[in-house]
Amino acid sequence: MKRKLSLLLCLIMIVSMVAGCTQEDETQPPAPDNTDNTPKAMMAPGTYTAEAYGFSMSWPDILSVTVSENEIESISFDEESGSTASMVDTVAATMFPRVLESQSVDVDIVSGATLTSLSARTAIEDCIKQALVAAGNEESTIAEFKKTQEKVGGSEELNTQVLVIGMGGGGTYTALRAAEEGADVLVIEKQGRYGGTTALTSEIQSINPPRVQEKYNNGEDFTDADAMYQAWTEYTEGDAKKEMLDLYFENSGLAFDWLALDHGAMFDFDPKPGFTPADWYKVKFQWYPNTSPEHPGAPTHGYNKREIASYFERLVDDFTALGGKYMLETEAYELISDDTGAVVGAKAKNRLTGIEYTIKADAVVIAT
Length: 368
Ligand SMILES: Cc1cc2nc3c(=O)[nH]c(=O)nc-3n(C[C@H](O)[C@H](O)[C@H](O)COP(=O)(O)OP(=O)(O)OC[C@H]3O[C@@H](n4cnc5c(N)ncnc54)[C@H](O)[C@@H]3O)c2cc1C
What we know:
The protein has helices at 2-13, 85-102, 114-134, 169-180, 210-216, 225-235, 242-262, 305-321, and strands spanning 46-52, 61-67, 72-77, 155-165, 185-188, 203-205, 272-273, 282-286, 325-327, 330-337, 343-350, 356-366.
């Protein structure tokens, strides 16, 4: 049990990576009933293209909108858009359906992909204006396609064994591991995408993962762990907490084995040294480079965010297959404590629907 707990803690601690955003298994709050959104102004049917600057100041996002006389029918990003690919995917999967469903440009943006959401909203509006003007209307008739959506509001109580707050690397790995142990797990994430900062990184640190070494390094250690431990202690001049160092040194290898060999995350299994004297040891595994034996011809470095996002999707699929649940765009804003001061849950709010959640849990993991 102690071992399992250590592994869980290590998963929270370990520096890591990935994103994604299909929401098939997401616990969906009820959608607001926004009836009669049919705009009255007519458009000239066709496909219109516009661009706006999102994450990149010098490379615009480009998108196309196809319309009928009075409906926005489809929206798609151009592959050449300037924003990070995984953000483009997130906005396409999350915000575009909101526009189509409500027939309004005035939809909530996707938190975690703010700049790309804003550029998309600007470009969609531009496309619709083009269609309106082409049908002989004034640009101002865009108002027909700018109706603010009402929020459902209200409150709900939820119960779970394990509540994980934050669905970046630490939160997702912890949730999956707890689900593997048979726990009933709920994760809440304030952004409209899972993966957190982890999804935007390029490599993960691990010290001598035993099974990976067995498979890819003739069973030999990648690095001298004792020397590295000594170097870290000296470099941090005693500031590094011994129990955290021990946890990292004892368990990061096991956690990495689990991620790479049990859940299909691919890395360059020829680790690179770190940046400082404290980690000038071979502990950095880059994501999915073409040196991975299973993936000849894959991207040449670990900076392909779309690939990293796909690993995250796989982890989340594994999690939901075990009955795990998650809610995006749901921010924890207060912890709930019992009389002894123990944390027994959290209060959270879904920013799309406005629903307030009181979530009670046997264990709460903060992975923010
Ligand atoms: C630009 C950049 C590049 C980096 N590159 C590397 C690298 O190559 N290698 C490396 O080892 N490390 C790298 N790091 C550090 C690494 O990203 C972090 O150490 C690691 O991702 C932390 O993982 P995490 O799960 O703790 O946090 P995150 O991945 O950030 O996840 C935290 C999640 O919690 C959510 N959250 C926060 N508050 C709440 C709330 N109140 N309610 C609900 N959800 C909430 C956030 O939205 C987020 O999704 C990099 C960091 C940055 C910023």
